[in-house]
Structure formats: C-alpha cells, structure tokens
Amino acid sequence: MDEQDILQRIHALVDEEHALRESSEHTDETRARMGRLEADLDQCWDLLRQRRAKRQYDEDPDEAQVRPEQQVENYLQ
Hints:
By secondary structure, the protein is mostly helical.
C-alpha cells in the first residue's frame, strides 16, 4: 500500500465517520462502528507517518507495517 492508497483509505474512513456522526440515530451498532473507524484511522495515520519517516531517513517506505491497534491507540497525542 503506497501513500496515495493510505490517503484514499483515510478519506473514505473520515467520510464514513462524518456520515455516521451526522445521522440522527446513534445505536449501539453505530457507536461500535465509530469506535472501529477511529481505530482504523489511527492505524492508517501511523502507517503514513512510518512511511514518511522511512523515506526521510533514506529507508525503504515499503518496509513500514501496520501496527497493532493496542499499540497505536496508546500513543500520546
């Protein structure tokens, strides 16, 4: 997955998140899906940052890997 693919995935996830938040019905399923979207977004942003850092330091960006949700979710903002 290259940076363009990651950015397209991020935009799709953000669009879905916005649609869910704008809906008037927030069921348990909707809230669970929003939580999943947030976790997926965190993983995508992390992967994008990894790729950019590797490129900056003359490493192969294709070596970047999706990190586990637990690891990414515990980063400080």
